[in-house]
UniProtKB/TrEMBL annotation:
GO terms for cellular component: mitochondrial membrane. Solcar repeats lie at residues 13-106, 116-202, 213-308. It comes from Seriola lalandi dorsalis. The keyword Glycosyltransferase does not apply. Transmembrane segments: none annotated. InterPro entries: MCP, MCP_dom_sf, MCP_transmembrane. It comes from the Eukaryota. GO terms for biological process: thiamine-containing compound metabolic process. This is Mitochondrial thiamine pyrophosphate carrier. Its main location: mitochondrion.
Length: 325
């Protein structure tokens, strides 16, 4: 069960255990969906129109882009920036789920609202994601820079990237795009938890049906929640990526046109003028595939690890209470 469950107070998990399950879920999920993330970022940063019918830029579709990246940069290119991305996923998952469990518990104990309602999950999920975003934004910026660079590489490794960015752009560069990120992450994460709660209740088995199929339900509910949430909030993710590669234009020249933006509003205006409304949704296709897999696997693995820890605690309790022979 995601969120504080008043019906399971006797076996409630601590925030530390929620953080451990969240970080483990993030780590496993990141390794599986990294290729889709790289494709999404490449599409988001392309100024030219992304179209297989009338190709204008370097990438024109999912299959073409995947083949192009593989032939030019090799299979490992689909895991570019994987180290900062893994650190991001582990840290984000730990902070988000630990915060979410704490917030839902506070709401249930301090307000008249039930912690298992969809509305509470929306608010608590959004706030938990915002706290995780502030903590992990520097890693997200590093992940974007690594995924965006082609060959030859601008950054040799994580340490070189950090030192180069600090020296040439200053420490605040790690928080580029934080404003649109927070604007997007609250409704995005909130809607993820909201729809996951709704779908889990809709697909809940009858009381006498047992617990079989719980993992599959988590995967399906999480995938649906991720796709709906991503579609609604996608433009803000694109703005964030465009702002994060500011000052990184030289490494982007051979991918096509590059642009510099003075801030969020200027970014929105320039994209609307040059690329039209469709420009706000560049890279949506791989992003939806990634969102379905990412959110589905995150909730699946989170509940899997929670159940594993719950079963382990129950086994230890039984061993302590059972009479010694």
């Amino acid at each position: 069960m995601v969120g504080y469950d008043p019906g399971a107070q006797g076996t409630a998990l601590s925030p530390e255990e929620a953080a451990l399950a969240g970080s483990a879920a993030g780590m496993v999920t990141r390794a599986l969906i990294s290729p889709f993330d790289v494709l999404k970022i490449r599409f988001q940063l392309q100024i030219e129109r992304v179209s297989s019918q009338r190709p204008e830029g370097k990438y024109s579709g999912l299959f073409q882009a995947a083949c192009c990246i593989h032939s030019e940069e090799g299979l490992s290119a689909f895991w570019k920036g994987h180290i900062p991305a893994q650190l991001l996923s582990i840290g984000f998952g730990a902070v988000q789920f630990a915060s979410f469990e704490c917030l839902t518990e506070v709401v249930h104990k301090s307000t008249p609202y039930d912690s298992q309602t969809a509305g509470v999950h929306f608010i608590c999920g959004g706030l938990a994601a915002c706290s995780a975003t502030v903590v992990c934004q520097p890693l997200d910026t590093l992940r974007t820079r690594f995924a965006a660079q082609g060959e030859p590489k601008v950054y040799r490794n994580l340490r070189h990237a950090v030192s180069t960015m600090c020296r040439s752009e200053g420490g605040l560069t790690f928080y580029r795009g934080l404003c649109p990120t927070l604007m997007a992450v609250f409704p995005y994460a909130g809607l993820q938890f909201f729809f996951y709660n709704v779908f889990k209740k809709l697909l809940a088995p009858p009381p006498n049906a047992g617990k079989s199929g719980g993992g599959l339900r988590s995967l399906v509910c999480g995938s649906g929640a991720g796709m709906i949430s991503k579609t609604i909030t996608y433009p803000f993710d694109l703005f964030k990526k465009r702002l994060q590669v500011g000052g990184f234009e030289t490494a982007r020249v051979h991918f096509g046109q590059v642009r510099s933006y003075r801030g969020l509003v200027d970014c929105m205006v320039q994209i609307a003028k040059e690329e039209g409304v469709r420009g706000f949704f560049k890279g949506l296709s791989p992003s939806l595939v990634k969102a379905a897999l990412s959110t589905g696997f995150t909730f699946f693995w989170y509940e899997f690890f929670l159940n594993a820890m719950h079963n382990l605690k129950e086994r230890e309790r039984e061993q302590k209470t059972s009479p010694k022979t």
